[in-house]
Write a structure and sequence with these properties.
Shape: globular
Helix content: 25-40%
Strand content: 25-35%
Bound molecules: zinc ion
Number of strands: 14
Structural class: alpha/beta
Amino acid sequence: MRFASLGSGSQGNALVVEAGRTRLILDCGFTLQETEARLARAGLEPSGLAGIITTHEHGDHADGVLPLARRYGIPAWMTYGTLAALRDAGASLENCAIRLIDSQRAFAIGDVQVQPFTVPHDAREPVQYVLSDGASRLGVLTDVGCATAHIEASLSGCDALVLECNYDPDMLEGGPYPPSLKARIASRLGHLDNQTSAEILAALDRSRLKHVIAAHLSQSNNTPQLARAALAGALGCDPDWVSVATQEEGFSWREL
Ligand SMILES: [Zn+2]
Ligand SMILES: [Zn+2]
């Protein structure tokens, strides 16, 4: 099993995961042209994607999902709430193969086992995912306002984690955003700050962990150094061991 990010942050997110003969993309917050270019950079073609898995309807995760699904005939998996939110926002579902998921029930796409789990975030029916080839597990957690016991149970025992470190509280407080946006980000339905992310990590069974990647960093309210330091503190490791996903590059292939 291997995975790579095509980009991570409020300007767009997409993660590619391969297991056995199956390649999936998890979220797609880029235009079709941008997605094609970023896939090419990772050595991939859109036609090789067996499915698109969607976490929630926010544009940085979903803007590219339906265009990609339509253009290349790739089925897109999402909750009913996500589908309804996209439809209510005026998205065209024409010629898109939509597969509705139960937010609590595991399913398989080819050789990839997909376990969704529910999260607190200000979207209609948001989920995050653990992906597995039956031997290794990759846990993904972004766009979450606070820790829950359900999140910790879902991510415990993973071999790799992509973990939101959205903001540093002091930088958010003193930063350029208007008060309403600051309040939204810091709310229990907003995003994870570095310390809360570190607390989630500290609460997990980490005995199998081989990769930890800080993701969805705010370009205004965080720095890679602060995110790395927070997660390394929870792991008791050197900050350099923690990777950081960037908006432009994402991160390169990681093997499990
Ligand atoms: Zn997001
Ligand atoms: Zn979101």
